Hints:
Elements: E1 10-11, H1 15-29, E2 53-55, H2 62-69, H3 76-80, H4 84-88, E3 97-102, E4 107-116, E5 125-129, H5 151-155, E6 159-161, E7 170-174, E8 186-190, E9 198-209, E10 216-231, E11 239-247, E12 256-259, E13 278-284, E14 296-299, E15 312-317, E16 321-323, E17 338-340, E18 344-354, E19 359-366, E20 375-377
Parallel strand pairs: 1-5
Antiparallel strand pairs: 2-3, 3-4, 4-5, 6-10, 7-8, 8-11, 9-10, 9-12, 10-11, 13-14, 13-20, 14-19, 15-18, 15-20, 16-17, 18-19
Domain LysM: 52-101
Signal peptide: 1-39
Keywords: Signal
Amino acid sequence: MKNFSTVGVRAAGHPAAHLAVQLIAAALFSAGAAVSVHAQDLHCAFKANAPDQHTVVRGDTLWDISGKFLEQPWCWPQVWGMNRAEIANPHWIYPGQVILFDRAAGRLRLANKIAVAGADSEPGTVKLSPQLRTEALGKDAIPAIPPGAIEPFLTQPLIVEADELKDAPRIVATAGNRVIIGKDDKAYVRGNLKGGTSFQAFRPGKPLRDPVTQKVVGQEAYYLGTLKLQKEAGAGSDVHTFVVASAKEEMGIGDQLMQMPPTPMQNYVPHPPAGKVDARILAIYNGVTHAGQNQVVSVNRGKLDGLDVGAVLQLYHVGQTVADKSASKGWHNLGNPQVKLPDEQIGSLFIFRVFKHISYGLIMQVTEPVVVGDVAKTPE
Length: 380
């Protein structure tokens, strides 16, 4: 079978090149050797027309690159033999590096393209070096997915879980008794700040019910802006003085505050959850009832259910329950019993923000629109 390549070069065939690749592999995978497995062992098949190698360029993502080699992009960690620590902090793939497909081992390897070979070498070859990049660690590393697709959802609350509302500070008054306030206006806040000085303002929306249990698991949150603590409550008072630092929407009395979350990690590796996860789509954002590729949804499972950042779930339409009308025909006359049709796979979901019981996910690819109640579960 002919080998395909996305670039016009291939690794030099002499022993030095092979030694360089082996040194790189040893350096990169020594920590993860214990979990190294062939992709096929976990149903992570390589594409029949997978290239021999790929040179990383700016604009690449881990998802796109893995999709060049693999039938399922979420299989990336398996074919690299990555351990959990490396999955959490994969700042080691940069533009200019070469990814090699070791067909015999069923693995991907990483090499640096450092120079064109001499005149006596085979045309179009490159020398490979075991050199590892250490300077500016992570600064120029390629992202897992397009960062622009999820940036607004990394820090702004879209859902507030039920237990977060109990003690949330709230605006009780405004300077000059204004009905609405905006940037640089003062707000008087009552509640336990728990040592925080920077907060987000939100207005609770409709309650969100688990599609299976119908239990309220949270509320939609309308993000309004940010506030900074100007003066903490004095003795004999529980009212704090804040100043509006930024305003996306108008704020007013009754709006609630949440502490600003820490800056989230934005470079994560797609991987299946560590265990079985069976979730349902909880809500869809941007004011639509159906979601497609690169849209954000939430699911009714979180870190307490085994989800972590970078986990990939497969999406399914729930199979309908229909009457078996053919059962009333023939000797086995059973009336019209109800039967459930199989769930139909429609795409994949990349989890990028995780709370206790709820997570946000980005739809990576989909063949049909996603709706509330659709299944999202561990890849099979």
